[in-house]
Amino acid sequence: MAEPNNNQDRKRVLMLHGHPVSQGYWRGLSEHYDLCFTSPQATEYAMSIGVPCFALNGFMNGDVQEHALSMSAQIASKAVQSASVISGRLLLQFNGSAPSEFHSAKDWWPGYVLQHAQAIALQSALLTQLSNIREIAGCVVHEDVAPDTRSLVLWCKARGIPTIHVPHAACHLRADGGSDIHRESRSDWILASGEYERDFYVAGGHPADRIDIVGAPQMDGLYADEVLPTQAEARRVMDIDNERVICYAGTWSQTTAVRGTGNVEMNEGLRAVIELTHEWQAVLIIKSHPNGGDDKAFEQALRDTNTPGLITKHYLSYAVRAADVLVAQGPSNICIEAAILGTPSCYIQSEGFDYAHALPFRSSAERLNIIAIEARDSRGDPAWQDFIRLYNAAHPEGGAVEAVVEKVIELCR
Amino acid sequence: MADGNAATKADQNEAMYHMASEWFVGLGLIIDDIDLGDAMKYDVLRVSGRLLERGQGDGRTEQQSGS
Asked: N or C: which end of chain A has fewer CB within 10 A?
């Protein structure tokens, strides 16, 4: 859809990135604002499901291009001049143990800066073009760490436009887990999913009076129980005819931190889950992350060990509901989703990360057979309700989407 | 800080984080009020993490983000 032509039909503009995790509140917000997505793909998708919106790149013209090119050229020139300084800082920071690339920053640093400067300068020029024509009421982002979302937030903040961060997921980095970019938020406001997320960002330095708890909008769909499968239905659809079923959430990719033992840790976890599957004479469902995971390697592991199972990136509610227990590699947020769906969970610990509640059950890979039984036997324990509420204040009804929309309207007056 | 055991992985992460925070300080890479040092910090962490991992073998990090 193009930008509304008729002035009478125009509302103020709300900027959104358009990540799928934010989809739940698009429609509600569109009733109050003209939505403008920075992601062209999100614009197409939103239009295909009947959400009125337009794309920021629709404001491209010759002046915008010229401004962006000039800005990025100037920045690249400064990057060339600063390359030796950067190289020196890198080497100093790593005190002799830096990778070889850090010795030759002048060979790649200017190109790296230019690539990002072009994207950021173009987005900025498009935003300026939009703001020359329309009033921007605010911006809502699902995270404000990646270059595109953070630069959107920074651009709005510099112009006094309200910025709101609705975190796409809770980060389970422990307080003693060291510095990490996920502790930061640049937005004026955070709409937190629950007490845990509020406390996490307060501990990271965000003002407590700038955080409101609204629930987890991305989990609202898990409360539509009438359209979710029962365990029997999930097993029937997945063609599983077995008394015991284990679901293994094996892959979450995050490349901004170096902790744990990487592949070694992942392989140990998979090996322990496969052993547990044989011990229980169970069927194993490997639920890999939609945005990552080496499903071929999982398939090979199942074949090599003659383990009955299946692998899927999608159909979370079926994979989780079919299982007696969920086993996660690290304290994944899928444990919260599983608890909402009534499936108990345990996880294999990783350095620096843990849930802040006594649940789910947790251990090293070596003790998985013990905690898996504890988790399996905890089905129906009321303590799981406490666990969910800590991470999703909208539990047990759902309805976080409505709370987000209401709060955005209040903050973007 | 580079021998690959669990404790030093956390140390490396800490060093990379502070490095990313400092990379751009004073360089004046500003576009329309946007400080590139702040805007690009996450990507700088990804790049430096990859470089460190490539130089040190087993450092692939798989954590739970959902991002």
From this structure: C
The encoded tokens of residue A276 equal: 């547990």
Q: Is A76 helix (H, G, I), strand (E, B) or coil?
A: helix
B5: closest chain A residue by CA: A261
* Residue A257 is assigned to a structural domain of this protein: yes
> Torsion angle, CA of A121/A122/A128/A134, rounded to 10 degrees?
-150
Are A165 and A42 in contact, with CB atoms under 8 Å apart? no
Query: Which residues are within 8 A (CB) of A12 and not within 5 positions of it... i.e. 6 or more apart?
Result: A33, A34, A134, A135, A136, A137, A412
As a 3-state breakdown, chain B gives helix, strand, coil percent values, each rounded to 5, of 55, 5, 40
Over residues A304-335, the pLDDT tens digits come to 999 999 999 999 999 999 999 999 999 999 99
Asked if A328's CB is within 8 angstroms of B10's CB, the reply is no
Question: What is the DSSP pairing of strand A163-165 with strand A189-192?
Answer: parallel
- The total domain count for chain A is 1
Contacts of A177 in chain B (CB under 8 A): 10
Which residues in chain B are contacts of A120 at CB distance < 8 A? 31, 34, 36, 39-40
A317 lies in a domain? yes
Distance from CA of B9 to the nearest CA of A (A): 5
CATH number of residue A365's parent domain = 3.40.50.12580
For residue A379, is it within any domain?
yes
- Does any domain span residue A258? yes
pLDDT in tens, A59-89: 999 999 999 999 999 999 988 888 888 788 7
Task: Answer yes or no: are the C-beta atoms of A156 and A124 closer than 8 Å.
Answer: no
* Amino acid B60: pLDDT: 36
Whether the Cβ atoms of residue A364 and residue A349 lie closer than 8 Å to each other: yes
The alpha-carbon gap from B25 to the nearest alpha carbon of chain A, in Å, equals: 10
Of A235, A161, A200, nearest to A331 by C-alpha is: A200
Backbone angles phi, psi at A353, to 5 degrees: -120, 140
Give the integer Cα–Cα distance in Å for A61 and A217: 36
Chain B hits for A266, Cβ within 8 Å: 62
Q: What amino acid occupies position A348?
A: I
Q: Which of A21, A132, A172, A258 to mutate to test the interface with B (most CBs of B within 10 A)?
A: A258
Apex CA A160: angle with CA A142 and CA A146, to 5°?
30
Domain extent for A258 = 224-391
Per the CB < 8 Å rule, is A150 touching B38? yes
